[in-house]
Structure formats: C-alpha cells, structure tokens
Design goal:
alpha/beta; Urease, subunit C, domain 1; 8-stranded mixed sheet; 17 strands; binds zinc ion
Length: about 400
C-alpha cells in the first residue's frame, strides 16, 4: 500500500462538489479504493487530511518546457545540454505548483520525455510534440516545412520518436513576424498534416488567432485550437461539429503585459495590446456555448511563475468548477488519458493534491501553493508532504 488518505473532502470535478469524510487508498501508483471512513484498514502510511481538500493533480495543456528564457534570440545560442538542464528546472517548478501532467506545445522532444518517464528528473507527465512546424516566414523557434512532402517527412520523423501531437502555425502570433491575420499553410497542407499525424495515432494542434484561421483549421481536422482570441459564432459551431477542443492561453498575454514585454519588438508589443481582453471575451463566448475548454498558459522563461494566474484570469468570466474541469478532466481528454488522470476515481493514476480551503468557493487558493498546497503525489510517489504520515 502506497498511502491511505482519511478524513478528506474529495473534490469531484465532474459534478463540481466536495464529498466529505472520504477515504482514498493508493496502491501501486493508482487509486485503489474510494470509500467512506471506517471501511479501510489503518496503515503505516495513513495521512489524516483533517478536512482539507483532496483533488486531482492539475493538467496544463499548453506549455513550453524547453523555453526557459523569454529572450528567444539569447536562447537560440544555448548549447543543447545547457538548454536541457534549464528545461528540467522549468518542469520541476511546474510539478511543485501542482501540475502533474503537461502537454508541451513546441520544443520538448523524445529525450526529455524519456528522462521524465524513467524518473530521472522530477517533472510532470510530459506529452511532447517535437518542434513546431511552420511555413517559411512563420513563427519563431520552428521547423520550417513548405509543401506536403516536407510536412509528411517532418511529421513521420516526429511521430516515430513518440510525439503525442503535431503543432502547426496556422496564423501569425504575438512573437512572430507574420501579421496576426495572416494565414499559415494551405488546405492541402493542413489536411495532409492531419492525415499523417493520424497515421501515427496523434493529432494536430493549431496555433491560430483569427476566426478565419480557426475555422479553416477546424473544418480540415485540427483537434485543438491554441489561443483563438478572435473566434466567432461559426467557430463555436465548428468546435461542436468536429469534437474539437479550445485551449485559451491568457496567462501568457498577462505575463508579457505585466513584465513590460522587455524582449519584444515594437511590432510585437502592438500586437499584444488587447490580447487579454479579446482572449477573455473568446473564453466567455466558448464557455457559455459549452465548448470543451482546456487549461493552457503558454509561458516562457521567468514568466513561468504566472502558470497558476490562469485560474485568476479565467475567474473573471468563468465559475471555479468550470475552470477546474478545464485543468483536470478536459485536460485528460486532450492528452488522451480520460479516466486515467484528472479525477479521483478507482483505477486512475494517483496524481493527487491536498489543498487548504475549497477551490470551488475560491479558486485563488490554488494560486498560492507555498501556503495552501500541502501535499503533492504523482503516480503514488510523494513529491511534497507537509502533513506527515500517521499510524
Ligand atoms: Zn505556445
């Protein structure tokens, strides 16, 4: 037996409620039993939660683990060994904020994922896609692909290395020389990428801002839309029609705005203006329409400290229960592990957090992990424990 949690309020993220006085048994890295008090034998590894909240570990569906600096020009000069060491620090900090799973949207590759899988570094479960694919003139820090042959070659290589998804640049962006409303890749190229990623049992994630870029992507089979600040009513219908996911990234815009965007060009700073407002409006529109929304942050370098701010930002337009679903059960669907992570249910991986307070009443309890996050367990392994084990 790995551990027994007693006397806890279990956060049922699906129903958005707390279940009082429950006991959870963890065995072989998984949740073996969820029951009432008294049904479970005492163990050397019993943790009395004293009425604290026991909740599933968080899932961030849009991170850049390898972008350990917000200064991209400086980062491209790093030797790969140094970049890897910096990425391990970024990942460790994510886990210590309570993120037990992250989906990397550009940069992380097979070697880093293998080191995580083998437990060589302290890190969240890591779903990686390899380099971002962009057409000539597209986004920064990408692998350039023009035409279906180059796309197929790149995607076959990345899928063969174990990529979970393929990210395409489908419009301009804040830190890109392409205009926000410029389109990346043709219909033929996008359909080819979707087909080729599907051959490897992966899917395409699309970086897109405008409704035009989002809607063509959804029509042609892109499964997750990243950012999507300027979606319209047609986008909403297409999300539903194609069972696609929306991953807004408000924290990234917020961090850049707050920090004065020191590393950005004047052109990028212009693009950044209004991004938080349009992002919030898009989130509100998607939320009201019942689109499946993932929790994403899209942070770089020192801005990673804003990773939990996404909760605060979304709370301006969403209920805590809905934000929590984005960061748990919906995230689990996005990374292809529904029922395995993101909820406290028998058979799931024991990715668990113990927090002070009730995040359903006040989501901000999650944003101060130093004070409120008392225990982190990942796959049954204790990462942090301020409560100790009783007898
Ligand atoms: Zn990103």
């Amino acid at each position: 037996m790995d551990a027994v949690f007693t006397n806890g309020n279990i956060l049922d993220v699906r129903e958005g409620r707390l279940l009082a006085g429950r006991t959870v048994v963890v065995r072989d890295g998984r949740i073996a039993e969820v029951g009432d008090a008294g049904t479970v034998p005492a163990s050397q590894r019993t943790i009395d939660l004293g009425g604290r909240t026991l909740m599933p570990g968080l899932i961030d569906s849009h991170v850049h683990a390898t972008q350990a600096s917000a200064d991209f020009a400086e980062m491209t000069s790093w030797p790969s060994s140094y970049a890897t060491v910096r990425a391990t620090g970024v990942l460790r900090d994510m886990l210590r904020r309570g993120f037990t799973t992250v989906r990397d949207l550009g940069g992380a590759e097979a070697g880093l994922a293998r080191a995580v899988r083998e437990g060589l570094i302290e890190a969240p479960r890591l779903m990686f896609g390899g380099p971002i694919l962009a057409p000539t003139g597209g986004h920064v820090l990408t692998r350039v692909c023009d035409g279906t042959t180059e796309l197929r070659r790149a995607i076959r290589e990345q899928m063969a290395q174990g990529a979970h998804h393929i990210k395409l640049t489908l419009s301009g962006g804040v830190v890109s020389s392409m205009a926000i409303d410029a389109l990346g890749f043709s219909e033929e190229e996008i359909r080819t990428a979707v087909e080729e990623a599907g051959f490897g049992k992966g899917y395409v994630a699309g970086h897109a801002y405008t409704a035009e870029a989002v809607n063509r992507a959804l029509r042609w089979g892109v499964r997750t839309i990243e950012h999507g600040n300027l979606i319209d009513d047609e986008s909403i219908a297409l999300f539903h029609e194609h069972d696609a996911y929306y991953v807004p990234t408000l924290a990234g815009f917020h961090a850049l705005t707050e920090s004065g965007a020191a590393h950005l060009s004047d052109q990028s700073r212009d693009k950044l203006r209004d991004m938080l407002d349009t992002g919030l409006r898009a989130l509100e529109r998607a939320d009201r329409a019942g689109v499946r929304i993932g929790y994403g942050t899209d942070l770089h370098g020192e801005h990673h400290s804003y990773q939990l701010e996404e909760f605060t930002l979304r709370a301006k337009v969403q209920k805590p229960a809905d934000i929590l679903r984005s960061a748990t059960v919906v995230g689990a669907e996005i990374v292809g592990l529904p029922g395995e992570i993101g909820e406290i249910t028998e058979g799931a991986h024991a990715d668990l957090l113990v927090v002070e307070g009730n995040p359903l009443d006040d989501i901000s309890v999650l944003t101060a992990p130093d004070q409120n996050l008392r225990l982190i367990m990942q796959g049954g392994h204790v990462v942090k424990n301020e409560l100790g084990f009783g007898a």
